[in-house]
Amino acid sequence: MILASSHFTRAVLGTALLALAACSDNAQEATPQAAGAQEQTETTEARVATLTVRPRRVVVYDELPGRVAALRTAEIRPQVSGIVRKVLFKEGSEVSAEQPLFEIDPAPFAADVEAASAVLARAEADELNASLKHDRIKALAESRTATAAALGDAKAALAQSRASVAEARANLTRRKLELAHATVTSPIAGRIGQALITEGGLATAGATNPMAVVQQLDRLFLDVRQPSMRREMLEEAVANGQGDEAGRMPVDILTITGKPYEYQGTIRFSDSAVDPGTGSITIRVEVPNPYDQLLPGMYLRARLPRSVHPNALTVPQEAVVRDSSGRPQLMVVGADRTASRRNVELGPLVERQYVILSGIGAGDEIVVRGQDRATDGTRLQTVAYQPAVGTDAK
């Protein structure tokens, strides 16, 4: 009886140990399954950077080369011939309007003035004599002492003497002008260059070579060439009130090294003819130059407006992905925080931002970074997109 009891006890203990081992194995199998389920839950949400699309004004530019020209250029030429006695300016300096620049020997012209004055005095004396004679004959004719023929001769002599006086007076005025022109002045204010004639040189009226050149440099012209079809688009933009407050389109200027110039230019006018060989038209841009940083003959680049989009929807360039056929797409975040791809139509690329012509609307939230971690229907964990340093933050 005692042996049977001990066998029963050992059987019960063995069964209990087997049950505990089975529970332990089940617990160990349940733990990896639970961990896998938790891991799957965590991987269903993709972490992405998003941006809400807002409309803004975008100007699309053409970057075109151009050559600088002075606003006004005056070639100093003599109006009388003679020997240059003095050069009255410092080369490379600023001169004012009507400032004397050269002095031509005035002695011959002063002598001509004195001679013309003498001729005028003689003519005035002859006029006085003819006038007195006319008055006497007229009185005699009234008393029937002088004939009508004599009176007619007196009138003709008086008219002739008066004409001589007018001629002598005009000649004197001419000689005085020549004396004044012996001092050569600048017609405009600006910077004068090299003196192309020195003291002792012969200045000749009507010469092809100038004595010096004065250029106005406080403002300059930049002449660029743009396709004629763009001109119509630009005029439409201005007509629609898309320019500045004065109705003009500002132009950004870049130096030849690509650095931005501190002042903006303004389109002054466009040429009235199209080059038949290239189909382009010349656009003249007026550029401020208060510190004489720019000089005529330099080459610059102008960012000329091509078109204006007053309410454009723009996205960063890196937000655009393409499908297997190359069509552009954007990944849009839905109201349930899931991802969906949309086909879009791309416009111009401006400062690393694509203008979106269709496919999305204002207020849509798009994925900019992390598109490779999400597919259609994937739940998204979003953070605000932060542009990289040196890129456009708009």
From TrEMBL:
The source's domain of life comes to: Bacteria
Query: What Pfam family is a match for this entry?
Result: RND-MFP_C
Q: Where is the signal peptide?
A: 1-21
GO biological process, alphabetically ordered = response to antibiotic
For whether the record's keyword set contains Acyltransferase, the answer is no
Under the GO molecular function aspect, what terms does this record hold?
transmembrane transporter activity
Residue stretches making up the Multidrug resistance protein MdtA-like barrel-sandwich hybrid domain: 72-215
Q: Which InterPro entries match?
A: MdtA-like_b-barrel, MdtA-like_BSH, MdtA-like_C, RND_pump_MFP
Tell me yes or no: is Iron among this UniProt entry's keywords: no
Ordered alphabetically, the record's keywords are:
Signal
Q: Please report which protein family the annotation says this sequence is part of.
A: Belongs to the membrane fusion protein (MFP) (TC 8.A.1) family.
Name the chain's protein.
Answer: Multidrug efflux system membrane fusion protein
Native organism = Prosthecomicrobium pneumaticum
Which lineage? Bacteria, Pseudomonadati, Pseudomonadota, Alphaproteobacteria, Hyphomicrobiales
